Amino acid sequence: MAHESIVTVTDANFQDTISTSDKPVLVDFWAAWCGPCKMLAPVLDDVAAETSEKLTIGKLNVDENPATSQKYGVMSIPTLLVFKNGEVVKTLVGYMSKKDMLDKLADVL
């Protein structure tokens, strides 16, 4: 079960989600068939629990929302894009531990 602060992002609400947030937005591009994506889900839950004051986390299913994935050139999943003021400021690709993720996000938090 995803942490309650993680939002579902779609092609329809993507622009609103990344441009109206007053804090950085991390979007997890994932798919149900992706093993590393499933492994990353609990890590994201933990990160969301620790950073909900400083970071918005969203999940975008690439199979259901292909337009956004194509727009940002997402070729492999999981890909995590961090947006600030509607612009990509960081890209993380592949599975990583909670510590690695927090270390890599430290400069945007």
From TrEMBL:
It comes from the Bacteria. Residues 1-109 form the Thioredoxin domain. The keyword Transport applies. InterPro entries: Thioredoxin (IPR005746), Thioredoxin-like_sf (IPR036249), Thioredoxin_CS (IPR017937), Thioredoxin_domain (IPR013766). Keywords: Disulfide bond, Electron transport, Redox-active center, Transport. The keyword Transport applies. Pfam families: Thioredoxin. Belongs to the thioredoxin family. This is Thioredoxin. It comes from Tumebacillus lacus.
